[in-house]
Amino acid sequence: SSMPSSFCSPVFCLSLLSVQAAMSERYSFSLTTFSPSGKLVQIEYALNAVAGGNTSVGIRATNGAVIATEKKMPSVLVDETSIHKVSKVTNQIGLVYSGMGPDSRVLLTKAQKIAQEYQRTYSEPIPARKMVEDLASVMQEYTHSGGVRPFGVSLLVIGVGLDGKPSLYQVDPSGTFFSWKGAAIGKNMVNAKTFLEKRYSEEMELEDAIHTAILTLKEGFEGQMTESNIEIGIVDKQHGFRRLEPAEIKDYLAGIAQ
Questions:
Q1: Using 50, 70 and 90 to split pLDDT, how confident is the model at 22?
Q2: Is the separation of the CB atoms in 175 and 140 below 8 Å?
Q3: Per-chain mean pLDDT for the chain
Q4: Which one of 10, 65, 140, 234 counts the least CB within 10 Å of its CB?
Q5: Are 100 and 79 in contact (CB under 8 A)?
Q6: What angle do helix axes 101-122 and 128-141 make, rounded to 10 degrees?
Q7: Residue 173 pLDDT > 80, yes or no?
Q8: CA distance to 2, 59, 196, 256, per residue, from 211 (Å)
């Protein structure tokens, strides 16, 4: 007997489509299951959380490295001196994040523990690359373990080796990490990267890199940039890593405005 004409009715075809949509939806909530196209969709969603975060930039210079970020407060009533996005891991290493603040705090604590364990075992400071590798492994673990979700942050890590050679790394929620000459993460990262590509030079020294980092942030900055709504960290062989004081940032901003 011939098949009833209603079998291929629009209603049936629509329900078939919704079944297929539901099939692909099924994978978007499972952390450890690949979708049919080979994606772990939760990692992509974690990258969306990063892309929604404040912009951060990093530049590696010949004699040091710099990280800088927007530090927008949700209200004028918040005491901005109590919140830091640029953090010290060791005397030679610092990091900044874009994305979810609480997640970055957990990773910062893990990074500091990794560094302490290395110091205790080998009686020398941990190299930036080794710390980044270990931290990336922690982030990667959170992409395939049951009952957890990926970290909703990307990190920019700067450090200086015992030989005085500076480095800059980016670590993503997937556990991927890269060494960069200049990098940007967060909501304005596409424009910031384009700006950096035009401005970067291999001979750039730290002072110039600090100016370039501020100018890069300024590209997509909403409102007036002041010493209280951006944060900058620098590292060099002489002084190691430190976060710049608001008064120092004010001087840099005044220099750029002239």
A1: low
A2: yes
A3: 90
A4: 10
A5: no
A6: 130
A7: yes
A8: 77, 10, 12, 7
Q: How many helices (H) and strands (E) does the chain have?
A: 7, 10
Residues whose CB is less than 8 angstroms from the CB of residue 122 and which lie 6 or more positions away in sequence, other chains included: none
Prediction pTM value: 0.88
Q: Rounded mean pLDDT of 69-88? A: 92
Looking up tokens 């290493």 gives 93
